[in-house]
Every structure is written in structure tokens, then in C-alpha cells.
Design goal:
alpha/beta, Rossmann fold, 3 domains, flat
């Protein structure tokens, strides 16, 4: 590839890839909606519990499903399934990052209701019933504020049941669905116990609603929120939890997302990308008109992994160094962004690629390819910093048990980890943490079991990987950000700011 061509593709990458990868509740553009085949089942109205790691797309789909254009796009992708009906579905948000105080109580209101003794199940049942106001049926839930609304539902169980039944019958006559979405439950409470109560109550409400034919509750949850004994302590919980659907991203899905961005970016650049991929790699694209937006979608039959590999290597070169011994970019970047379960989030993937393009622009502008292999490594460092920051938001205690491990070379014996913890007094400090801290999760769930309990918690989060000999390994996506070493691996980030 000539230097000017490499520069052009580098510019295209920087133009297409988002600088930020979190929507913060904003509606996504249909142009950048890529649907992994494994996500089809999760997005159908009948999928009640949808589980995904941080960055897997829970909040993205929560926001996307609220857009009619996106639902039309998804319905077209799932046209072979007669029960999909996404283009015949009305959607309201019951809880999420972007709150409508009329549709859902905020965190302080939820905490206030719990502290007043209102059961979590009653709170979410009220939210569901109140959101039926979008339909021309009654009687509506009475009360101008959430305490009064919860009180009305509790004192009028027969009227509440009639409202749900009338709404369901109306939807059946109209041959439509109503989907009520719940996301960001970590923002619903002030501590873990309250969050668990609210998740349990929400799941119980979702199970009750499954008695309807055309009304569904869809809950987007993290694995650590659902894999918790406390949330499944209501009758028939196993029936609901057994039907959970995972938001899984295979390697080819992540690259498919990259091509989706590049094919639907700025008009001239994206047209050049589509023409090049069709001419040189056999990728075919079709234009879907959605009214306000038009979307270029790839023909899945032309997007096999062999094609994807050749296309990415045209942008990044064939090796992660001067020869094949360092690995191949297509597989290397995915492997080094995976957690202990082998999961790579699209957020980490996009962060790494954009950082790699930016670093290539700054340090290797004359390189023969758009992405330099050393810049890809720095992209992994950038993604690792983001993953560490996300962990701090979701599980603040992780920082306090990982920070003492800085400089440790992995794989290592678990006793080496324990020695660092004991020297720093990490577990003792955690044990003294006030239980009313203003954070969703302030201590490891299995802290009472001691060091092995904390090890189990880190394994559950995909940070620790247990070896056959009993030792510990840490995937690069966490190892780099926390400053641990590995012989021959990506250099750790010794400063949390930047290199």
C-alpha cells in the first residue's frame, strides 16, 4: 500500500470511528446499528432477561429499541421469524440512564420508596401499569407522584389487574406488542443490597407480565447482577432465569461492526470504502431506506471470516511485528482485549482501533499501512484504561485489591497475590468499608470468605483466570491497565493518565 493510500484509510478510520463509545441514553443513529446474528433472539419481544458484560451493548439496544427506524431495520433482519414483530411493537422505557420522571422514578425516589417500606415488586408493577397510559384503555393508575401511584396499585389490586388485562386485549386486537425496557439497574440504588432487592422485584414483575400475550418487560442486566443467589428467591424464578439470552460478540461480529461504521460514515469516504471492499474483497452492500435515514447493510453471505481477515490485514499489515512470530493483527487484537471468559466488548474494540489509528497518525504517518503494529499495542493500552475505569464505576472495591498487585508478573502463584494483599492490608480495609457508601457495590460479595472469596469474585468478573496448577493469570485487557507485567506481553500502563 502506498503512503498516500495508507494515510487516506487512516483518515477514514478516524472519521468513521466514534471518539466516545457510550451513548449516555441518547438515541443511536440507525446507520451505525450492526446486528450480530446471536443478538436477534435477545431483541425479540419475548426475550425477557438479556445479559451482557459492561460494554456489550445493553444500553445501546435499550436506546436503539426506542427508535422506530431501528425497529424497522431489525425486523427486516429478522424477517424469517414470524414471532419477531419488532416493526409492530410499541416501546416505552421503564428505567434507564436517560430518565423521564413521568415514566419512571429516579434513584432517589426508588430509595425513598424502599425506605418507606414499599416492596420492590410493587414499585416496578406500578411502573409497568403506569406506562400503559400510552394505550387507549383504563382505568389509569391514579396519583401525581410515585408514592401515591404505588399506594393506588396496592390498594386497588382488582382495578390494576383489569387495567393489565384490558391493555393486553387491546394489543391483541391491534396485532401489536408493547415492550417496557429496563436498563442501568446499577443506577437504581445506593448500595448492593438495595440494588439486589430492586432487581429481584423487577424480575418478579417481569415473570408476572409474561402471563400477558402482548405485553412484555425486557431487562438488560450484567452477569454479576443476575448470577446472584439473592435475586432469584421468588417463586418460579428459575423459569425466568433459565430463558436468559446473552449478548455475545464473536470475533467476526466485532469486525462486522467496524465495517458498518466505515460503510456509513461521511458520504465520500464511505462510498470509497464500499467500492473498494466490493471490488477487491467481494463484499456486497445493500441500501435500506428507513424514511429519515438510509443505511448501507452488508450481505452476510459475503462477509465470512476469511474475507474479514484479508480486509483488516490490508489496513494493518499481516504481522504484529517484523515477522509472523509476533502474531497476526486480525486475531491478536481480539485476543488481547478478551477477559478471562474470552469475551471482548465492542466498546473496547472500537476504543482500541480508534486509539491505534490516532497513534499511527502521530507516530507512524509514513507507515505502509493505515495501522502500525506498535500503535495497535498502544490501542490495547487505551482500551485497558477504559476497562479499568468502567470497573471502578461498577465495582469500586476492585481498585483496592488490584492496585497492590502493580508490578507483579503473571502468571503467578495465588500466594504471591495473597502476600501483596496482606502487605497492603487490602482485605482488612475493605472489611471496614461503611456499608452505606454512595456506590452501587462497595465490597466484594464473597469478602466474608476471605482471600479465596475475593479470588472467586475476581474470577466471576473475568479479571482473574485460574490456571491448572492453581496459579493466577490476568488477561491483558486488565493486566495492562493495572500495571501488572508479563514476559513478552503488552507493556503495562504505569501511569493512569497517559504514556
Amino acid at each position: 500500500m502506498k503512503a498516500n493510500e495508507a494515510q487516506a484509510w487512516r483518515d477514514d478510520l478516524l472519521s468513521a470511528l466514534p471518539e466516545g463509545t457510550s451513548l449516555h441514553g441518547d438515541a443511536p443513529s440507525a446507520r451505525f446499528v450492526y446486528l450480530p446474528p446471536s443478538h436477534l433472539k435477545a431483541l425479540r419481544p419475548d426475550a425477557t432477561v438479556v445479559v451482557g458484560m459492561r460494554g456489550a451493548g445493553k444500553s445501546f439496544w435499550w436506546a436503539a429499541l426506542q427508535q422506530p427506524e431501528v425497529r424497522t431495520l431489525l425486523a427486516g433482519a429478522d424477517a424469517r421469524n414470524p414471532h419477531a414483530d419488532l416493526d409492530q411493537t410499541g416501546v416505552v422505557a421503564g428505567f434507564g440512564e436517560a430518565l423521564d420522571s413521568e415514566a419512571s422514578p429516579d434513584r432517589d425516589t426508588l430509595v425513598h420508596l424502599l425506605e418507606r417500606g414499599v416492596d420492590a415488586w410493587m414499585i416496578w408493577r406500578t411502573v409497568v401499569l403506569h406506562n400503559l397510559r400510552v394505550l387507549p384503555v383504563g382505568p389509569h393508575v391514579e396519583g401525581g407522584r410515585w408514592p401515591e401511584r404505588c399506594g393506588w396499585v396496592g390498594e386497588h389490586p382488582e382495578e390494576a389487574a383489569l387495567l393489565l388485562h384490558a391493555a393486553d386485549q387491546h394489543l391483541q386486537r391491534e396485532n401489536r406488542w408493547l415492550l417496557i425496557l429496563f436498563d442501568a439497574l446499577d443506577r437504581s440504588a445506593r448500595d448492593r443490597a438495595q440494588m439486589d432487592d430492586l432487581i429481584r422485584g423487577l424480575l418478579q414483575t417481569a415473570l408476572d407480565v409474561r402471563g400477558c400475550r402482548r405485553i412484555r418487560v425486557k431487562c438488560f442486566l450484567r452477569p454479576d447482577q443476575i448470577d446472584n443467589a439473592r435475586v432469584g428467591t421468588f417463586p418460579d424464578a428459575s423459569k425466568l432465569l433459565a430463558t436468559r439470552v446473552e449478548l455475545h460478540w464473536a470475533r467476526e461480529d466485532l469486525y462486522g461492526l467496524l465495517w458498518q461504521y466505515m460503510a456509513n460514515g461521511e458520504a465520500t469516504r464511505s462510498e470509497r470504502f464500499r467500492q473498494m471492499t466490493e471490488r477487491e474483497f467481494g463484499l456486497r452492500w445493500s441500501l435500506v431506506n428507513l424514511g429519515r435515514e438510509s443505511v448501507w447493510s452488508p450481505d452476510p453471505d459475503t462477509q465470512g471470516e476469511g474475507v474479514q481477515r484479508r480486509l483488516f490485514h490490508a489496513l494493518a499489515g499481516e504481522w504484529m511485528g517484523t515477522d509472523h512470530r509476533r502474531g497476526f493483527p486480525y486475531t491478536w487484537i481480539h485476543g488481547h482485549l478478551a477477559d478471562a471468559y474470552g469475551r471482548t466488548s465492542p466498546r473496547s474494540f472500537l476504543v482500541a482501533l480508534r486509539a491505534a489509528a490516532d497513534d499511527s497518525q502521530t507516530r507512524h504517518a509514513s507507515h505502509a499501512y493505515a495501522l502500525h503494529y506498535e500503535s495497535i499495542k498502544r490501542g490495547v493500552q487505551a482500551a485497558s484504561r477504559v476497562r479499568v475505569a468502567e470497573l471502578l464505576e461498577d465495582n469500586p472495591w476492585v481498585e483496592r485489591v488490584m492496585q497492590p498487585l502493580a508490578g507483579l508478573v503473571v502468571p503467578c502463584r495465588f500466594q504471591d497475590v495473597v502476600s501483596r494483599w496482606r502487605q497492603a492490608g487490602s482485605l482488612q480495609d475493605l472489611d471496614r468499608t461503611p456499608r452505606s457508601a454512595e456506590t452501587p457495590v462497595d465490597i466484594p460479595p464473597h469478602l466474608p470468605e476471605g482471600e479465596r472469596g475475593v479470588r472467586r469474585d475476581l474470577e466471576d468478573l473475568g479479571i482473574f483466570l485460574s490456571m491448572e496448577d492453581g496459579g493466577i493469570n490476568v488477561p491483558d485487557v486488565f493486566r495492562v491497565g493495572y500495571g501488572l507485567g508479563r514476559r513478552g506481553g503488552v507493556k503495562p500502563v504505569h501511569s493512569r493518565s497517559a504514556e
